[in-house]
Structures are given as structure tokens and as C-alpha cells.
């Protein structure tokens, strides 16, 4: 479906988030995906003990409770996997790859589940069935003929289980490289690189229990009504208890205003709803670092005043003395930072900063959550460390009801990193891995996503293997990413459904169809469970219950094991022995990582176990052994600043974000209900005053062009202008249509994350 010319319609959504609207859309999706009645049952088992872990988001569940945790977008994710549609060899016989490339991302996934391994044939320009053995031989042949293991890269999207991911990293390291580009690199990498500098661990410090004791929740750059709907249930309870909830977001997200809980029959029947956010602070795009620094400065000023007046201190002086280092340098920097700059860079007026500071200093138990709005900018590592600094000032880390809460994306993206999907592995981990498995892992760091694309473009990486995901479409600078993949000798994708990455292929190419998490995974006749770690470090078991989409599917774990065996034989382990019983892999994980002691036993208990996060217990795994205040200056000479200086008011900053009807690159439908967009994705939200200033009108069609300094043209055409409550100078449009606008070399400093939420662009009227 090409919706280039589809106008759709725009109408503000008058209802609360969730409620009946969500129920209606659940029914619609089950119908659209033609999910079989017998498979409905699966939904009832979602996120329950003995059931499967929702492949939607990484938000945790309440002790895998027995009540059905209803979540519209969880249902969509499950329906997409449990669909009765099939992409059989007949589809690939009918269409050449060139023809399939003409179809939209939506149409490609709508063909349904892949059923059999496929290999690309250049003579016919078609994918044709291939035996599993022949597929593994092809991979092994390519890998073993490379002159250097670093010429291969091994992508992971965060849906794979701990078992598959652990075996994958063992295989890749035994093969000889640390080239692990992963979806984290495009997602929460600034969290994973920033937090270790301040609190010693790149993970959140809270659990769901803390939400029951928080009186203040600050939500930075997140749209939970769409991306983590179950979080709204938690926020509802906080709000009902009287907690103050603040949304810090350039967009005033309707989904954070009111919520009708589908879990509560009375709310559904009476149409009652709960107000969620009581305050909206709207920084300009990329302004959070300055805003958080301003909050820290104001907190310090208010504490000076309290100290002078003999009032109770605002800073947690005991925590700072006992647990931290660097405080004096930090406060000296804050005092020296001029207010005018903080206001100008954040885009938030002084009185709004004051209002937010009042909330922050009055909170006794504060949780700060954040998502992509904080992590996809040049200064994201600095923003994350500044937020950590701010919370440390008031001792809001490592005590009940308070703490840091990065909200991850893919359901096991955190677990993948925990078990070793990491292009910059630590020495201690490599030592241990080498000891346990009796081999010498490579020590030099590998490529992340952006470095992998650059290396493929340079001809330095020739083989690309993807454990899930849609690399070609999720990555930045689309034409360059496509070219990079096309320069490969071999591209391999393990996937549930057809997507564009399979069609933008190397000289040789394979599509390997995998079992989904909702499906029964039999190994040696025994049903296997897999384990995943949610955003709050809870590890639990997941058992699929549906029949596999096709008898010819293999589990990801089995594919990794057989790929490893074909490539390395029995070095350094008997791969098939591990894949035959996943509890053996869990035992191996426990041998490598102390935190997983008694893994099989502990994960068998309902709800699983908490992995332990040192900073939560106020143990600081930093160089100094203390939580560290980090000084970061405002950077006033960035590509964005320079573009603004060059183009003046006409320069806009664009964020690329998710609609309500998509899961990353998987498009479920054309609506973005809470933002009032129906039947189209080709919209760009802008401030009404900017629309007028640029000489446009509401509803005009515009083309977007990146204002970058390398002279490479980057365009995305035909978006309908929609006036929206967003600060001047800021725009919002959907990902992935706008990925061609993100320059490959525009990344978060210190994390390499593409700056998907702050792209300098110019607008032109569409032809
Ligand atoms: N249904 C569904 N669920 C999902 C996903 C999905 O696509 N669909 N994706 C999954 C994944 S992988 C992830 S990472 C998460 C993503 O979940 P989110 O983190 O919610 O991601 P986005 O929708 O990209 O945008 C987040 C918010 O950031 C705001 N924002 C943009 N720029 C800025 C800024 O400069 N400052 C501030 N303060 N805010 C800003 C946007 O207005 C938007 O509200 O969700 C996961 N869950
Ligand atoms: N411009 C812009 N770009 C972005 C972002 C943004 O906000 N703006 N967000 C970034 C973020 S946060 C992320 S996480 C990445 C996401 O990047 P990816 O993780 O690479 O992308 P997805 O769209 O989640 O991958 C979808 C595909 O995964 C496959 N799949 C689904 N389930 C399974 C499974 O169980 N096993 C296997 N093997 N395959 C499966 C299906 O074939 C499906 O087509 O995109 C990033 N790109
Ligand atoms: Mo993500």
C-alpha cells in the first residue's frame, strides 16, 4: 500500500487513552491478522506464569500475575506473530526481488509468516527454497574464506532469548570477532554508556514496587500510551495516590493526559478516567541536557537559601558525603553556568523551569523515567549523566520509591546485552568466557551499527548476519545503508516475517525462518522454555503454546548452534548438545555470570528473579567506588547550532518517532489515534506559528531536506503539514519514512547512537 498520496484525515482524539478505543482496535487487529480462534487462547496466557513473555515491549509485569494484563499494543505484537497468513515459496516464485522491493513495508509484512529457508538466485532474481544444511554450509563457506573474522558483522535485535543470544555471542567470539552491531546502538546506548560513569551500572535502579512508593514521577521523552501501555496502569495508580506526574516532552502527548483502565470494569462502564500527567514541560528538541542542568542549578540555589535560612536542607547532604565524589567541581560548574544560556538552549521559560524545580525539590520519593526522547541526540550521554547527577543531589537513587528508570524497547534487549551482545566487551568478562569454554576470545573492540555500515561501505565488512530485526530500514541514512548491504558477499537474516532488509541483499543471501516466542519449541521431543530480562532486571521463563507457523521452522537457538557447528565444528563446545536442552545453556550462562547463580532453579519460580543491580543497593561499581558527579559543559557549537546560524528561522529540528500503529519498522496500520491522525503516515507536525512563518498553510504538502555539512543530499518527500502543540522550530514525523534524513555520521557523542530525534531540516513545498 503506497500511501504517498493518501491524505488521510486529521481530527483531535477526544477520549482518554486505552478504554474502549483500545478494545475496538484489539478486535480489529485480530481480524486483520486472521488469527485463528484456537490461538486466541494464547493471549490469555500472555505474561503469565507458564505462559509466554509478551514480544511487545520491555515493561515488566506485576509478578506475572494471574489476571490478564490487557494491552492493546501487546495484542498487536502477538497477533502479528500468531497471524494465519503465510509467506510461502509460492510468493517468492511469483515475485522477483526487484518486484517485491516495490511493495511497502506494510505490504511486505502482511504476507505473513515465513515458512521455509530461502536462498537468493541471481539468475532468476528470486528467493528459492533451500535445505537447512545447504544454508548452513553456505554461511560456513563464506565465513571460513574471509581473511579476517572482523570482515563479518553479527547484528542482533532485542527479541532473541538469553539462550539464543548467549550462544550467538559465544559462536561469534569463538569465530574471532566482537562485531556486534545491535538495536541497542540505535536505542538506549547513551543510557548504557552514561550511567556506568555516574552510578557504575548501565541499568535502571527501580522495580515496580518502587512505583507504589513514589510521590513524584518525571517522564522524559517517552510516549507510554503507545510504546509501553502497561506503564500507564502503574502511572494511574501513582496518580490516584496523589503522586505528581510530569511529562517532559516537546510534544504534548494526548496519551499522557487521561487514561481509562481496561483492567477496571467500573472505569470502562462509566467512562471514568484518571488524569495522568499534571504538568507538561515542553523543551525544544535536544534541549533536555540544558533543562536538567538548569534544574540542578536551581536545586542548588534553593538549597543555598534553605541553608542560610536554617531550614531543612534540599540536598541530601548525608548521601552526598557518604556515597559520592566530584560534588564540588560539579557545583562550581553549575554556579558558573549562565541562566540565559540554559533557558535559550532548553527552550523552556524561566517560570516553567521554576515550576518544575519546585516539584523536584518537594518530592520525597522521585522516579525519573526516560525513553528515546532523551537518547537519540548528540548530547544524549551528557543528558543521561546530568539526570543521574540531579537525582544524586537529592539522594534519589537506591532507596524505596525512588530511582532511575530507563524504559527499554525490545522485550529482551536488556537481556541480550547482559549475556554478552556487546561490541565493547570488558576484559573481566572475556577472561571468564575464555576460562569457562577454553578458548581465547578476541580482545579488540568491534563495530556498532554505524561503524558496521561504514565498514561495509568501505568494503571492510563482507558478511552480514542478522538475528532478527530489520537493519536496512531501522538504520539511519537509508540510501547509504542500502548501498552498504548490497556491497556484501553474503547477507543472512533470521526472521519471522519478510521485511525490506531481506530484499536489500548481498551477492549471496539467505532468509532463515524462525519460531516465534508464542510457539511451542520442541527439542528432542521436549518443550523448551526461554528466558528474558525486562527493563527492571527481572528474569523470567517464557513458554510458547501455539503450533509452529510451519513444520520447517527452527528455533533461533537451534539455528545459531547449527551455524556454529557448520563453521567451527565442535570448537570450542558441542553446539548441538547445548541446543538440545536449553537448561544446559542456562547453566553455562551461570558459569560465566555470577548474577545468574542457580539460574535454572531460580527462574522456575513464578515471576522469576531479580538480577541484582549494584547501584540499587548503593554499591557503586565505578573507578572511585563512589557515585560520581560528572561535569559536562553546554556545547554551543554543534552541527545544529551551525545550521541555525546559516539558515536562521527557516531551519527546523526534526524528531522521528513512532505512531500508535507500528512496532518499530513493522507497520500495523495507518492511524496514530491519540495524535489524531487517521489513514496516513505522511504527516509532519509543526507549530502553527512556524507553518505561517514559513509561508505554508495547514494541510500543505512539503518535502524535507537535511541541512548537513557534507554536501550529500538527503531528502524525504511529500508530508502533509499538521499544526500541533510543539515548540517553535521543532517538527515531528514518523520513523522509518524519515530515516533517509538522518546523516550516518550524526551520532550521540560517546555512544554512537544515530541522532534520530534532532535532525536539522529545511522545508519546501512539494512539487
Ligand atoms: N507499540 C509499540 N511499542 C513499542 C515500540 C513500537 O514501535 N511500538 N518500540 C519499542 C522500542 S524498540 C522502543 S526503544 C520503545 C520506544 O518508546 P519511546 O521511547 O516512547 O519512543 P518514541 O515513540 O520514538 O518517542 C518517544 C517520545 O520522545 C519525545 N521526544 C522526542 N524528542 C525529544 C526531546 O528532545 N526531548 C524530550 N524530552 N522528548 C522528546 C517524543 O515526542 C515522543 O513522545 O518502545 C518499544 N515499544
Ligand atoms: N529514525 C529512527 N530510526 C530508528 C528509531 C527511531 O526512533 N527513529 N528507533 C531505533 C530503535 S529504538 C530501535 S530498537 C531500532 C529497531 O530496529 P530492529 O530491531 O532492527 O527493527 P524491528 O522493526 O524491531 O524488527 C522487525 C523485524 O524483526 C523480525 N522479528 C520479529 N520477531 C522476531 C523474532 O522473534 N525473531 C526473529 N529472529 N525475528 C523477529 C521480523 O522479521 C520483523 O520484520 O530502530 C531504530 N531506528
Ligand atoms: Mo528501541
From TrEMBL:
Molybdopterin oxidoreductase domain boundaries: 113-493
Gene Ontology annotations for the cellular component aspect, listed alphabetically: membrane; oxidoreductase complex
PANTHER family from the UniProt entry: PROTEIN YDEP, RESPIRATORY NITRATE REDUCTASE
Cofactors demanded by this protein: Mo-bis(molybdopterin guanine dinucleotide); [4Fe-4S] cluster
Oxidoreductase found in the keyword field: yes
GO biological process: cellular respiration
Pfam families noted in UniProt: Molybdopterin, Molydop_binding
GO molecular function, one term: 4 iron, 4 sulfur cluster binding
Occurrences of domain Molybdopterin dinucleotide-binding (ranges): 653-755
Top-level division of the source organism's lineage: Bacteria
Keywords associated with the record: 4Fe-4S, Iron, Iron-sulfur, Metal-binding, Molybdenum, Oxidoreductase
Protein name: FdhF/YdeP family oxidoreductase
Similarity comment: Belongs to the prokaryotic molybdopterin-containing oxidoreductase family.
SUPFAM superfamilies, alphabetized: ADC-like (SSF50692), Formate dehydrogenase/DMSO reductase, domains 1-3 (SSF53706)
